């Protein structure tokens, strides 16, 4: 819950579900990353809806109780506690929806390789760059996206980012 | 690649062979499924018997495959073709000349098509970007902050693309540029290929 509030407040780019899942598992609870991601999404939606409607902790819990019947008591208590402590700091404005599909760049890893041969060509000698982007999607999940570029593609990629930086400086 | 004007004009009889090689390349390397053996025989060697044509086509395909697989440079090509003219059941020096000219003109394109066959991971198909000025924000300190919004189209060949849309502020752009410079630096260590 705390990580989700931090994410909604833009203090962190996202919820590191993989890491959280490991921590939860080591404390003896059986859960997989997919399930944890769903829970994170639901709680995030809960908190951002509460923020948008400026609900107090009591109002949030009452509404929750009216719509969802099977929530365990301690889960409700945790939600109420986190919301009453930190709910006021979350304010979700309308333009958030415009950026709904934009993710946050977190990190980049790269590899430069040369493919020597293949089943269709004995002498390939083809250099390429593989890039792994760490991305936080709008709901806060951090995922890795990897892709390959030829050398000319990479040079173009680099050039575009330099152009972006130049434009950003003049704005 | 040698400019065609520098080579002596090919004798008349080589035109069908040149077209045959073209047809073979279309079918084998450029993915043109319409070029069948029948079509080629009918258009280029109408007087030849089917088995005779099949043998010619197989021989030329085989030679082209050896040349393409080794991505031969001019020296290797000359040595290879000369050896083929001296072989029993090999090729004539006229045919060798046609093959040489064909390879000079098509080497890069055929090599590229072979490279593409071994690219199985997602690649960057297109990329576009714009710079936005954040005029409204949840946090006062983000007012009038320029950000770059980048859209990358990723995908494997033949499959639907995934569009990745990312936001970069100045700090993140610097981070990106720093890493990309590292890549460029290590590229200078690569020996030049074609």
From TrEMBL, chain A:
Any one GO molecular-function label of the UniProt entry: NF-kappaB binding
PROSITE patterns assigned to the protein according to its UniProt record, in alphabetical order: COMM
Residues annotated as domain COMM: 104-171
UniProt similarity note: Belongs to the COMM domain-containing protein 6 family.
Task performed by this protein: Scaffold protein in the commander complex that is essential for endosomal recycling of transmembrane cargos; the commander complex is composed of the CCC subcomplex and the retriever subcomplex. May modulate activity of cullin-RING E3 ubiquitin ligase (CRL) complexes. Down-regulates activation of NF-kappa-B. Inhibits TNF-induced NFKB1 activation.
Protein name: COMM domain-containing protein 6
Source species of the chain: Galbula dea
Gene: Commd6
UniProtKB/TrEMBL annotation, chain B:
Gene Ontology CC annotations of this record: endosome
Domain COMM: 123-191
Signal peptide location: none
Official protein name in the record: COMM domain-containing protein 1
Gene Ontology biological process: copper ion homeostasis; negative regulation of protein localization to cell surface; negative regulation of sodium ion transmembrane transport; positive regulation of protein ubiquitination; regulation of proteasomal ubiquitin-dependent protein catabolic process
Family indicated by similarity: Belongs to the COMM domain-containing protein 1 family.
């Amino acid at each position: 819950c705390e990580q989700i509030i931090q994410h909604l407040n833009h203090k962190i780019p996202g919820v590191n579900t993989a890491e959280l899942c490991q921590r939860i598992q080591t404390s003896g609870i059986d859960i997989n990353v997919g399930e944890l991601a769903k829970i994170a999404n639901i709680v995030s939606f809960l908190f951002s809806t509460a923020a948008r409607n400026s609900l107090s902790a009591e109002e949030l819990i009452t509404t929750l109780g009216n719509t969802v019947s099977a929530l365990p008591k301690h889960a409700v208590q945790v939600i109420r506690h986190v919301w009453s402590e930190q709910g006021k700091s979350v304010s979700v404005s309308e333009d958030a929806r415009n950026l709904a599909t934009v993710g946050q760049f977190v990190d980049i890893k790269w590899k430069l390789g040369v493919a020597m041969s293949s089943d269709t060509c004995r002498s390939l000698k083809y250099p390429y760059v593989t890039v792994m982007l760490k991305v936080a999607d709008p709901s806060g999940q951090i995922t890795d996206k990897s892709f390959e570029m030829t050398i000319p593609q990479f040079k173009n990629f680099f050039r575009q980012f330099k152009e972006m930086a130049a434009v950003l400086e003049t704005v | 690649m040698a400019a065609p004007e520098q080579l002596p004009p090919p004798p008349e009889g080589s035109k069908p062979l040149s077209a045959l090689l073209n047809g073979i390349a279309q079918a084998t390397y450029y993915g043109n499924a319409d070029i069948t053996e029948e079509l080629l025989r009918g258009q280029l060697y109408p007087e030849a018997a089917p088995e005779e044509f099949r043998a010619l086509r197989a021989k030329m395909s085989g030679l082209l495959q050896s040349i393409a697989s080794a991505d031969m440079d001019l020296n290797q090509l000359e040595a290879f073709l000369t050896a083929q003219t001296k072989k029993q059941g090999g090729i004539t020096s006229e045919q060798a000349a046609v093959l040489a000219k064909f390879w000079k003109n098509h080497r890069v394109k055929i090599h590229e098509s072979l490279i593409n066959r071994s690219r199985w991971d997602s690649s960057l198909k297109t990329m576009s970007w714009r710079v936005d000025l954040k005029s409204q924000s949840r946090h006062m300190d983000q007012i009038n902050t320029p950000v770059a919004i980048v859209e990358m189209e990723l995908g494997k060949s033949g499959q639907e693309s995934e569009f990745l849309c990312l936001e970069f502020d100045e700090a993140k752009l610097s981070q990106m540029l720093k890493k990309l410079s590292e890549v460029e630096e290590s590229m200078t260590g690569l020996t030049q290929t074609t």
